[in-house]
Amino acid sequence: MDLDARVKPLYGHQEGAEIGYNPHKPGRPSHAYHSLFVRGLRLVLDVEVRSGKQPAATHGRENLWRVWDSLPGGVVRG
């Protein structure tokens, strides 16, 4: 399972948008999309939208473990 974080610049006033790290449009509000997927299967398991001040993958770690723990039995965390 892979965790990927992307920054999406926003225009106008959208809920949860904050001015944070935004390499392409500095000073613009943004959202950070934290995607969990199985790369070999091209299967997206979950996407979490956070404020622009939380772009690092470490902010999506708790969501990763929540999804991991919800997988069917036989899957071992390690």
Q: What does this entry look like structurally?
A:
By secondary structure, the chain is mostly beta strands. It has one domain. It has one helix and four strands, in the order ββββα. The chain has one helix spanning 61-70; strands at residues 2-9, 18-19, 29-38, 43-51. Strands 1, 2, 3 and 4 form a four-stranded antiparallel beta sheet that branches. It starts with a strand and ends in an 8-residue tail after the last helix.
Q: What is the approximate shape?
A: elongated
**CA(first)-CA(last) distance:** 12 Å
Uncertain segments? none
State the domain count: 1
Quantity of strands, as a count: 4
Radius of gyration: 14 Å
Beta-strand portion reads 35-45%
Q: Main beta sheet, described?
A: 4 strands, antiparallel
Mean residue pLDDT: 77
Helix % is 10-25%
Structural class: mainly beta
